[in-house]
Design goal:
Elements: H1 2-10, H2 15-30, E1 34-43, E2 46-53, E3 59-65, H3 88-101, E4 117-119, H4 122-125, E5 145-154, E6 157-165, H5 175-216, H6 223-233, E7 244-250, E8 253-257, E9 265-273, E10 276-285, H7 299-368, H8 374-400, E11 409-412, H9 413-430, E12 433-438, E13 445-448, H10 450-467, E14 472-481, E15 484-490, H11 521-531, E16 535-541, E17 545-553
Parallel strand pairs: 12-14
Antiparallel strand pairs: 1-2, 1-6, 2-3, 4-5, 5-6, 7-8, 7-10, 9-10, 11-13, 14-15, 15-17, 16-17
Helix pairs in contact: 1-2, 1-5, 2-5, 5-6, 5-7, 7-8, 8-11, 9-10, 10-11
Length: 563
């Protein structure tokens, strides 16, 4: 029997499972009807009491008792048990306390050298008028044999084994020594079970953290996939995985496993990145368990949920840094491409500017000559118009390549917006585009070239209205933001497709028909912004439109140089 109990402990089951199976081993072997264990578990909660009965039917119960609420250790000697059977339960509690304290020496022949109390005939030995009852009332079976045996799990955790039987002489001077040995074995098994169970739980938690680390080190894994795999892994690390539901939320990502709406015990840990709460890790039980008398979660599980939150936060932070690095690298590549194109554009502009001037000049002289037929005059007019159009493109190319230095001064941003929208009013009306002006009442002032800034506003607005073929709303905003003046132009068009997002500022790149544009509008805007030491960003969603944000300095450079 001792071997069976020790073997049961090495499996590391939960406390309830161990006590239940150990009771089923001891009760039939000892021919007892009731078994009680009073154990001081060495925890802040105090002590617990386990009861098991096989008469009249199998039953088990567990009571948790705070150390401060324990009954006083009254000196209640076995010979003075009382005269009323209803006093048996209170009397038994007192005797258990006396036995557990080890202060029972010399009280009667029913106390062994090891401090155990036993009686083969409770009616006679305890001076009851009639045999005490198991339940403490007349409905219970009479207790004829009783043994109270102290044991130690370890130096800090004493315990007491109580055995009761309805037959007389269940305990003798010969077998009480065996039960004392059994009680010591049971104490070792309880302590070993606790250590084995704790070890198994720690292994589960470490395996969980190791698996999470492997998930987060997977090359090219997305944040969504990583969180989904982690949340599916979480239940395996808790005491009762079949009853666990888990959820991880990070910004707009929410992944869950199990029914979180049915959770009855919940623990959570915040996910903080750069000191800001960005989400939570939630773990909970969806049903009650008998083991929850000391709390649903182990202290180590509280640490584990916080560790998972830290791992997710660090992963998200690393992924954001990688994405930012890639974005900056792409910006550098884009800037290099634009610089190369700009050099090419400047060279082309210089090369064709002179012949264009000659074509335009001679065409205009030819128009002034006498006797020019009407048909020839019309052809010359077309040549002049084409040359003027080509010269406009050359100027835009030179502006993109920053070959035409801006003439900067302090400019009121709201005034530039009003001028640009006034110029575009007929075209906006024709395109069924409404304009919403959200201009800063403080009227931000920027240090810029008024002509180029006017062109910037017009080009961004034209780009927006061309994207809204069926009409819509164009919103123009201005804001003052410290050393910057901000201009936003937002449309309700089809958005910018991801596959062309890195090319929108390239000259001559356009998704529009040749009649709608040359592909220089945004490239010119980009050139103007860079020449002013500003920045331009955009946000775009499919079928929801695009928002461009331009930031321009409100003061000259620190070196005081004004171009």
């Amino acid at each position: 029997m001792s071997r069976s109990i020790l073997h049961l402990a090495t499996r590391g089951p939960g406390r309830f499972e161990f006590l239940r199976e150990a009771s089923r081993i001891i009760l039939p072997f000892a021919c007892c009807d009731v078994l009680e264990l009073r154990v001081d578990n060495g925890s802040p909660v105090g002590r617990y009491r386990w009861s098991a009965s096989q008469r009249p039917a199998e039953s088990f119960s567990f009571d948790l008792q705070n150390a401060e609420e324990a009954p006083a250790k009254t000196r209640h000697t076995p010979e003075r048990a009382g005269a009323d059977a209803n006093e048996f339960v209170a009397w038994l509690d007192n005797v258990v306390e006396v036995v557990a304290s080890g202060d029972v020496g010399g009280v009667s022949r029913c106390v062994t050298a090891h401090g155990s109390f036993w009686t083969p005939n409770a009616t006679a030995d305890l001076a009851f008028k009639e045999a005490p009852r198991l339940s403490g009332d007349e409905s219970g079976a009479p207790v004829q044999s009783l043994a109270i045996i102290p044991f130690e799990m370890n130096a800090e955790s004493p315990g007491v084994l109580v055995l009761m039987a309805v037959r007389k002489h269940a305990f003798t001077s010969q077998n009480i020594e065996f039960y004392e040995s059994l009680a010591q074995t049971l104490g070792l098994a309880i302590d070993d079970r606790r250590a084995q169970h704790a070890l198994r739980e720690r292994v589960k938690e470490l395996m969980c953290l190791y698996s999470i680390a492997q998930i987060l080190e997977t090359p090219d894994i997305t944040v969504l996939d990583a969180i989904q795999r982690i949340v599916e892994l979480i239940p395996s690390a808790w005491q009762f995985p079949d009853s666990i539901a888990a959820r991880i939320s990070l910004d707009d990502i929410v992944c869950s496993h199990g029914d979180m709406d049915s959770v009855v015990h919940l623990q959570e840990a915040p996910i903080r990145i750069d000191g800001r709460r960005r989400g939570t890790v939630d773990v909970g039980y969806v049903e009650e368990h008998p083991e929850f008398v000391e709390g649903a979660f182990l202290p180590e599980e509280q640490h584990l949920v916080r560790a998972i939150a830290r791992e997710v936060a660090q992963f998200a932070q690393r992924r954001a840094a990688i994405e930012e690095k890639l974005r900056l690298a792409e910006q550098v590549r884009q800037a290099d491409r634009l610089a190369t194109i700009g050099q090419l554009a400047a060279g082309v502009a210089h090369e064709i500017n002179e012949p264009l001037g000659a074509i335009l000049g001679f065409a205009q002289l030819a128009k002034k000559a006498s006797g020019v037929p009407e048909s020839t005059e019309q052809d010359l007019e077309k040549i002049v118009g084409a040359a003027l159009h080509a010269r406009t493109i050359v100027r835009k190319l030179m502006l993109f390549a920053r070959q035409s230095p801006p003439s900067k001064s302090f400019v009121h941003l709201n005034a530039i917006v009003h001028e640009g929208l006034t110029l575009l009013k007929p075209r906006l009306s024709e395109s069924r585009v409404d304009v919403a002006r959200d201009l800063d009442p403080a009227d931000p002032v920027v240090f810029a070239d008024a002509v180029q800034l006017h062109q910037l506003v017009v080009n961004l607005c034209v780009n927006g209205l061309q994207s809204m073929s069926k009409g819509g709303r164009l919103t123009v905003r201005t804001r003052g933001s410290g050393p910057w003046g901000e201009l936003e132009v937002q449309d309700q068009g089809g958005g910018i497709a991801p596959e062309i997002a890195d090319r929108i500022f390239e000259p001559f790149f356009t998704t529009k028909s040749p009649e709608q544009g040359t592909g220089l509008g945004l490239s010119v805007v980009h050139g103007i912004v860079l020449s002013h030491g500003g920045t331009i960003d955009y946000e775009s969603k499919a079928e929801s439109g695009t928002r461009f944000c331009v930031r321009l300095p409100t003061s000259p450079p620190e070196d005081g140089h004004v171009e």
